[in-house]
Amino acid sequence: MRKVEKQERHVGMAPAAMWHERYVGGNPEAERQIFEKLAQDLMLVQLKTKKTTGAADIARAFQAKTILAVENARLTFRDDLPGDLRVGFAQPGAEYPVIVRLSNASGVRQPDFAPDLRSAALRIQAGAGEAHDLLMTNFPVSHARHARELVMFAQAMVGANSPPRKAFAWFIKLPMALGWSSAARMRRNLKAGTRRAVRSLALERFWSRSAILWGETGPVRYQLRPATNAPPAPSPSRTDPDYLRRELSRRLATTDVVFQLCVQRYVDSTRTPIEDGAADWREEDAPVIPVATLTIPRQDTDTAEARAAERRVDELAFNPWNTTDEFRPLGNLNRARKAAYEASSAHRLGYRFMTPVPRRNTVLGVPVRAGFRSLNRVVPWHRLPSRLGLLNLDALRQALRRANLIDTEIGQAPPKAHQVPPPIDEQLRIRRSYDGSHNDLSAPAMGGIGSAFGRNLASVYRPDLFDTPNPVVVSSELLRRDTFIPARSLNILAAAWIQFQVHDWVDHKRYPVGTKSVEVPLPPGMRWRNTPEGPLEEVMRFAENEGILSAGDTRPPILFGNMASHWWDGSEVYGGDETVAKSLREPDGAAELRLDRGHLPSGPDGTPITGFRENWWLGLSIMHTLFAREHNAVCQALRGEYPNMSDDSLYHTARLVISALIAKIHTVEWTPAILATDLIDTALNSNWYGPPKNWLTQLGLWLYDAHALTGVPKTLPDHHNVPYSLTEEFVAIYRMHPLIPDEFEIADHTSGRRLETLSLTDIRGAATEAIIRRTGLVNSLYSFGIAHPGAITLHNFPRGLQEFERGGEVIDLSVVDLVRDRRRGIPRYNDFRAGLHKPRLRRFEELTSRPETLARLKDVYRTVDEIDTMVGLFAENPPKGFGFSDTAFRLFILMASRRLQSDRFLTVDFRPEIYTPLGMDWIERNGMTSVILRHCPELAGSLPRTASAFAPWRATLCPQP
């Protein structure tokens, strides 16, 4: 095990002495991370066990074979319970129902006559909302001193089901992992515990082998002792693989099975150590004190009712941390058990997943990644032949996964006791929740509304540089649009689409206007009106973001929560909570979304009622209207195919279909349109459908990344060792406001005649809906389809976004974007690109060769290290065909796969049983073009024949006068 640094934490007073716990790695957080890795190793053990045994399902990591499981046992505390042990539910004469599971200890379901330890698990149901799990084994000490030994032993013994393999595990694998002395001591302990033949589990004694807190009494170990008057058992069978089960069944048919629950009090760290699971608490040092009687009543264990009870008990996840603070588990083995038991039980129940990496991939991945790094110093990935470039991108994605996923969740360290988690709502297994929770059933809050943004790079929080250089100067010199620069390979629908998506993904919460603001000093002589009717001021002011702080933390926040869910779940259409979602549906709980003659219904302020209503403009209205109609079309198709499906099921199934269709469109249509190269088209289609079937690509991926041999929807969920979230850097690279023009020509799709020319201000906010209803969805789509958006580059930020009203304040969005990045700890551009495995810039000339831009950069920034990330990304020369920079693209290839692969509804639960066969077929057959044509068939002649709907459309020629 890693060196155990002693950090002593006084946590109570035992009658005889002070006592403490010591943390592996020196502190609780370091220990938590180590134990999380051990938990993942244990999940791999489960998979190996499943493979070697040929089992159909993943079994428990330990205690796999049930001998007895009952729900009707009783625990009765003694009337003469010692006064210092009267703690919490442990009171004289108190009686509680108990669930009991007796089992063999191995993680393999082997015959009862095979050498093995035996285990007992109790769940004491002390009252409404209070339960206590006690776990014991029929040997007084553990073969493992600490957590790593426990897992290394399990790894070494997987598949050791024959004498040669067992000898290899004992004398080669285990000593190599832990050393000869530790391996020998474990072998001795285990041999002593398993060599004795067991006649009946009713006659066995079980020990906790690790300590728990018993209120102010301090640490205790507990044990079960069989009743002294228990009937004897016959000799152990050498042929019946289930003789222990049969013996208990026969015994319970005629009599109760009774045990005494006993405890031993802590004495001192030498005689009764807390952190060493292999040390015995000898009875002469710590006398055994009976405290309660466990009674398993006489019963027939072969009835249908008893078998059903056994199945329910087998589904339970026993964990010593299912308790209260007064009975908290102690010691590193117990702290490791919390992570390990939660992970292994979630794995067994299908809540959490593990995808083993083939050994060849592990071995070959290192030289392959190193080889591509060396090659890319001479030839960048985008200049390689397509097949080699595809393998280069995969190697880069692997490197990014290893180095650029940073966990920002506030972990529980040290662990805390908790009550038994409630069972998962059956509906949440097959439906997206309203708030993004329960996507990962093993961590229900992951990715839900309010969870923290992650990081791809270490935060650089420099308050002294918040205003250096002045962001208003940066904006006016480098961002402001002087002349519109078009992106000629796209249409404006591409601009509308990405804002439509960003509203699903990210939303930083802001303080109410006027309560807590950011103040940006203005250059000399400049004034700004911060509210529509307010005075001119010498500062630019806008609402500050609300950060996430730990209790009592007074530091400035650098961690922020997402007020949208992190999942690709269509929340911009459906809303982020149940109240909003239901308000958007037709009356009386109908499945369809409310529409007013095909358009979104308007709210009191003139902005439509939909899932996300901020920053409203015509582009968003087009997208929201289109996909609200598409939702209703899916509902109607489902109702026709499955007439017995309820409206609620229709709604949720349609939401699944629409969300997946949106994810597919973004993956295989929008992204290849804005990154218009054959290589990226292949790469993004590979993400969804799987890689090309040519031998070089297939062989290369088989050798060093076998998981990429299928499209992501055919894989298991994989968070790549970091809880899923979108990241602050992801937000930074999706600042694509230059895509939006300042003027829009609205045209008639039949004649090509111009109907009107409108400014961005004219088509924003409450004015939007009057325009789309007057123009119609068909002409609005056509007008956006034939016109170009702006290029994502410097000197092209929309003027209409540099002074506009939002929520009662007047802001310059370009300044807000710069300030937000600085205050959220986004590294400046040079550090940003270096963190994404690109060479650092030494001179301004390495960023751009355009003389005017170069001169302005040098005027604004003192050194290349000062350049703001957004400015650097806009200034960088992108690869040929790319609509944005290679630096931004690197984060994209990391997060694009992650958004799909972490989501169980786009991986393991992307299947007909959840989506229905019709739903799966709808996603497979449809894309942006078919969605448009379903609701606007008049546009068939305008849409591109061989390109996506985000490419420029054919314009209708105006008739000659």
UniProtKB/TrEMBL annotation:
Name this protein carries in UniProt: Peroxidase
UniProt record, GO biological process: defense response; fatty acid biosynthetic process; oxylipin biosynthetic process; response to oxidative stress
GO MF term (any one): heme binding
SUPFAM superfamilies linked: Heme-dependent catalase-like, Heme-dependent peroxidases
Protein species of origin: Sphaerisporangium siamense
Keywords of this entry: Dioxygenase, Fatty acid biosynthesis, Fatty acid metabolism, Heme, Iron, Lipid biosynthesis, Lipid metabolism, Metal-binding, Oxidoreductase, Oxylipin biosynthesis, Peroxidase, Plant defense
Keyword Lipid metabolism: yes
Cofactor: Ca(2+)
Pfam families found in the cross-reference section: An_peroxidase (PF03098)
Highest taxon of source: Bacteria
